[in-house]
Every structure is written in structure tokens, then in C-alpha cells.
Amino acid sequence: MSDAEVKLPPRQYKIIKVLAESGGRLSVNELAAKLSKKVSDLMRDLEELASRKLIKLTRRRAYSIKITELGIDYLEAGLPEERLFKVVKRLEGEVPISELRSVCGLENNEFAAAMGILRKFSLISVSKGVVKYIGNEEAENRFAEYVRELKVRLRNLTTPLITDRVPSWARDLRRRGFIAIEEVKEIYVDLPEEILDLCLKGMIKEATIITKLTPEIISSGLWEGAEFKEFDLSIDVPRVVPIRKHPYIQFLEYVRYVVITMGFKEMKGPHIESELWNFDVLFVPQYHPSRRETDVYFIKTGASRKEPKDVIDRVKSVHESRLRYKWDPLKALRLILRTHTTPVSMRTIYECGEGEYRAFSLDRVFRPDTPDPTHLMEFHQLEGIIVGKKVTFKHLLGFFKEFAKRLNLGEVLFKPAYFPFTEPSVEGYIKHPKLGWIEVFPGGMFRPEVLEAVGLKGYNVAAWGIGIDRIAMLVLGIDDIRHLYTNNLRVIRSMKVPYWVTE
């Protein structure tokens, strides 16, 4: 930019002046405070200054991670796994789970999480409802180091950590209620070096700028000595794009078409579901941490509509005989927003019973989560089942490969996985050009206990619940899952919709 004078209307002049006095960089909130204005009152001026390259606007999305009151309590009283380990080691020998739970004084969700961690470190074994200490010095040292590092991390979060992305360890701690994660959006205003130099030379001046000539301006003589804003006739007229469906809707319709052509029939199920179908039928114990308030949206209206008595009786028998705890039918009847589409599969198997069939569901599910580029509180799942006497794990892997091929997703990487309701289980990964390998193909063979609960015997069932939103990100060429649901036309028009999706 040359050293010519730059004349600005009063408010824009004050913006430049305050930025220069503040070293050339402020957040929009800081700038609004210094000018005693609302942020919304400044945005039009800021956008105009940015278009003239007099300032630079930088939008930043970050996350604030801080310790919760529960996390502080755990720092003082000891982590649940730390307290449980002390009790297990003190009691020695074999201890029934019910006795251990009452002695350690932990809530059900704390107890379940602590048990899982001790098993992960090979400090205990669990068999037929009995817990046995099996640790050694090496395992105890690894566990002690884990506890120490976790406590240090929690203490460091007494002052909020601001980060561009939510690390994986933070998601685990949030699920346990140790920390809270909040999204922080901020816009920064920077003064380029050449503009700062003009300010120091006194080349940026305040002036009356007329953008619209009115009879009042002419009769008052205000126009004399005023600056008239120039019209730039070289600027193109905004393009009008013909109306069409949202790219994500087009993608979902294409996925539905692909699965139907592979021989599957669509199944439907309610968004508001009982815990019976969402968890209990799937062999998920009622003390499992995935059933906590931090992981599930509960409905306040009370108990579920009437559920089949034969399903309730079989679920009760399976849980009490295999998992060895007192199953509560009232808890099973509580209403929630479904956390996955697998309850639709279970209802379908219960209604269809024996036979050879394939079915799928493409619909929304709901989970409390912190929105970030790969997570949302509401998203879509592609659920599917293959039912038959000769269905095997190979059929599941074959489906994933064929589905990936039809969507041009490239190579699929498989890894062993664990889910409470399938065995064996698998996670399939596809490669995103920016995010790297992302997990989109979880599935497995339904456990006998699961099929027993819905009255199916003598048949095998391959099942999956695909994170279809993450696949859409890859196909549409975006790296933020939130863009799938945006109404920002600029973002929508930037999506790269493959020709085969719009066919």
C-alpha cells in the first residue's frame, strides 16, 4: 500500500486508532470493551475495513478444558480406581463383587469404571462374580505411575487449558465427570505493519464519508468538504445458484440406495427408547458407565410404555445368571434418547424371529458430547444386520469392503475391538486426507446372550453401526463434522459432491 492518505468515517478511524495504541492486535471482545460498544455494532465496520485490507480478521475456534468439582473431590479423597485398589489389596484372596462394592464405598458408575481400569492393569481378575487380586510389583508400579500422571493432569486443569482440538485423554476424563469442556469462539483483529506505519506517520485521518446523497445533506451544505465513498463497478454481481438439496441429504439418499441394492430392507424405530431395548437387551449391565447421565439424554416423563413381558423375563434371567447382579426392571423401563440404532435391530429380530433376512436403518442418534471437528451431540448411524444360520464373521468384513468400494472410500483397515453385545468384534478404519485414519466401521457377531434375550435360537447375526457422518466428511471433502448441518451457503457451495452421489 502506498503512503497516500486514508480517510475513514469516525467509528472506523477509532477502531484503527485503538488497534495502533494496543500494539496492533486485539480480540473483538477486547476491542469492543475499549470502544464501549457491543461486538455486534462493530462487525460491519470490521468487515469493511478487512475488505479494504486495512485490518486482518482471524477467526479461531478453541476449547476450554477445566477440572470439575467432582474432579477436585477425587484429588482430595483419591481416584475411584486408587481407592478400590487399596481395598482389594487389603482384603487379599477372593472377594465377591457385591461385598467389594459395599466395602469400597463407591457409586455404581465409579465402581464399574474402577474395576475396568484395575483389570486393564492386570491387577485383578473377575470370575463368576468374584474378584481376585493377581497383581505383581511391575503391574503395581505401572498403575502407580498412571495415578500420579492423572492427578498431575487434573491439578494442572485448575487453570483452564485453552486448546485448538480436544485431546483423546480429555474425552475420557469428561466421560468420567472429572473435567468440563466448553467451546470458545473468538475473532482476532490484526493491524498490518504497513497500516501501523501509516498511523505513525499521521496518514490515516478521520473524515465525514457520504455513502448516500440526500436532500437534507445538500440543503445543509454538509456535502461541502465531505468525502464521497467511491463505487467500485468492477465488483461482480453475486452469483445466484439454482436451488438444490443439501449435499449431505444427497449423500444420505445415495447411501440408502446403495444398501438397498445390496439386498437390505429398511427398518424403522423410535428416537425415544427405553433402556430395556437400548442397553439391557444388548447385555449391557445396569451399572455400566455408558449408562450414566454424562453419556445419555434421559427423558423426564417417567417410565416407558408397556414392553413385552417375555423379553423382560428373558433379559432378567440372562443378566442375573450370567452377570450375577440384581437386575432392576424399573430402571430398564426408563426413557432416553437412543444412543445408537442397534435397538432398531433388536426390535426387528424380535418381530421377525427365525429366518434368513437382511435389514438396515439410517437415522439419528443422540449422545452428550462436546462438539468438535469429529463429534456432535446428534448424528446419523447406518445400522445393519444379516440374519442366517450360516452367517459368519467373514460376511461382516465382506460387507464393509463392498460398501467401501461402492462409496469409493479406498482401503479399509481392520482392527480387533470390544463391544458388550458382539463377539468377535471389529473396527474398520478409512483414511481422511487431513484427519488421518478415522474409525467408521464398528461391528461384530451378536453374542448368544443378546439373541437369547429376543428369543432367537439357532441363528447367527452379523451387525454393525456405521458412523455415516464421518464417511460423509470424506466423500464431501470437509474436515469438520459440523459443516454437514450448516446453513452457511458459502460452506455448502464449497462441498465437493461426487457425480455418483447426485446421480
Characterization of the model:
The protein is α+β, with helices and mostly antiparallel strands. It has three domains: 6-55 and 191-228; 72-166, Winged helix-like DNA-binding domain superfamily/Winged helix DNA-binding domain (Arc Repressor Mutant, subunit A), CATH 1.10.10; 247-494, 2-Layer Sandwich (BirA Bifunctional Protein, domain 2), CATH 3.30.930.10. Helices cover 40% and strands 25% of the residues. The strands form six sheets. Strands 12-16-17-21-20-19-18 form a seven-stranded mixed β-sheet, with helices on both faces. It has a four-stranded antiparallel β-sheet with strand order 2-8-3-7. The model has no long low-confidence stretch (mean pLDDT 86).
Determine and state the CATH class of the largest domain: Alpha Beta
Report the principal-axis shape: globular
Largest sheet: 7 strands, mixed
Number of strands: 21
Percent in strands? 15-25%
Which spans of ≥5 residues are poorly predicted at pLDDT below 50?
none
Distance between the termini: 49 Å
Second-tier CATH architecture of the largest domain: 2-Layer Sandwich
Number of helices: 20
Spatial arrangement of strands, main beta sheet: 12-16-17-21-20-19-18
Q: Domains counted in the coordinates: how many?
A: 3
Could you state the CATH homologous superfamily of the largest domain? Bira Bifunctional Protein, Domain 2
Structural class: alpha+beta
Question: If you average the pLDDT, what whole number results?
Answer: 86
**How much helicity do the residues have?**
25-40%
CATH topology of the largest domain: BirA Bifunctional Protein, domain 2
Measured on Cα atoms, how large is the radius of gyration?
A: 30 Å
